[in-house]
# Entry
Amino acid sequence: MKADYHIHTEFSDDSVELMENQIERGIELGLDELCFTDHVDYGIKRDFDDPRGIEYRGGDGINSSEETLKPFANVNYPEYFSKIKKMQEKYGTRIKIKSGLESGIQTHTIPDYEKLFDKYSEDIDFILLSMHQVGDKEFWTQDFQRGKSQKEYNEEYYDEIYKVQQTFKNYSVLAHLDLLSRYDQAGVYPFDKVKDKIAAILELAIKDDKGIEINTSSWHYGLVDTQPSKQILKLYKDLGGKIITFGSDAHSTKYLADHFEDARKIIRDEIGIREFCTFERMVPTFHLI
Ligand SMILES: [Zn+2]
Ligand SMILES: [Zn+2]
# Structure
């Protein structure tokens, strides 16, 4: 059983890959199941039907040219969910297709995500809880880190995730839990210095029956460790965590299910977790790794 539970498509502001292409590549790769998880980032992006209108930007977020302009907005929900249904009808005998979202949440945007979940709960199988910004400041541009010590921005990042988790429960797994490390120009921040904060996050996730993801994009980003790190994965296991998903975070077919075999070996043989999960209407099903 092979399932990729973190995939982006044309419905994300930073991807132009058609759903059909991801599905056909998935079939080629022998995936049994895939779950689309396109971006929602309230705080920095608006919904398509926002009365204030939406912005258009270049696909890379900075250099815009006429041809590459894309809506800088959240998923167009009605079109997204209806296309997933069409894809399920078209490809359903060859691959299982699930309907998810990647919620890039922050404490001040929690009410927006609560509203979104209430409105579309019938359509949603799975939600990634991600943190892409804090205080609407991006990590990849260094806006969030600028002017802070490595200790300050790392602690603030994990504190913000923990605060979100305390009130927000409409999610399935914590995505790329140590994402900030991907953009940390000061190098790897020692695990021991934030271990207590990470343990609190994992303990709360376990108590709420939530899981974590192993995000295999770490390989093509050239990170020195898995994402999250092996130490975090091990801590999750030691604290009694059982729910894990595999996600490539592919924004194009090139990276679909990328390095899944490596990730499976690490989770099974090094971390010692023997099962992974797929989801339907937010309920996990366990499969042998
Ligand atoms: Zn993400
Ligand atoms: Zn993603």
